[in-house]
Design a protein that fits this description.
Strand content: under 5%
Shape: globular
Largest sheet: none
Mean pLDDT: 81
Number of helices: 11
Number of domains: 1
Structural class: mainly alpha
Low-confidence stretches: none
Radius of gyration: 20 Å
Helix content: over 70%
Amino acid sequence: MMNLIRADFYRISKGWVVYMPFAALLLLHVFLIAISSIQENVPTDASGLLYLEQVSLSFTQLFFLFGVIPFVFCVSVPSFSDGTMKNDIAWGMSRTRLYVSKLLVLMMLAMLLYVFYIGSGLAMATVLYGFGDVAAGSWVNLLQAMGAQMVAVLAVCSVMMFLSFLLKKPYVLTEVLFGILLIPVVINMIANLFNIDLSWILYFDLMSTIERFAFVSLLDGRTILIGFGVVAVWFTATLVAGIAMLRKAEIK
């Protein structure tokens, strides 16, 4: 499996697409900071830490939109279009190992990008506003939030990898992945339109869970348990379904 992972990283590193998410997230931070400055919404106690707490950890949908989704197309989609998947299977490679290796590559790229996303935002805001005062326990709270979000990001990677193997066609996959990011927005629109409480549905939505984990230190134990339960179910279900689907699929 390590050979498959190394081969994927080598192939991905040769293309320019893999570097676009890093550039896009840098521009995203520039945009968010600029908008706050133009609208004069910068708080008097602005700092790198405050930006990390109130912006970076809360705008995770944009992280997936500009970061993780392009990685999905780098990792899985070319395997179908260029015949790599078919060749690997023809050489006797286990389909389970193929699927798991692709998922591991996507998860490692997502973790690398998440650290870059958090670190670059903190660095840019610190240059402008200073690092900020570190209150007692603030680092523990931030690390808890980032750790919880990173676990949930792995589950989103599993869902996206499953969908890429299910749909295969790039344009269809793009629409579906964008749709996943909009689920919380659509649910809130429906709730407001019909004046009904649909907040309970968001407890089963991964994107909402990730945003909720940004303030994990403020959540009660039941909410945290539900969040990690949802993450575990989504990850396990899509992993098992993806492997089963590939094992039965006809690869052309």
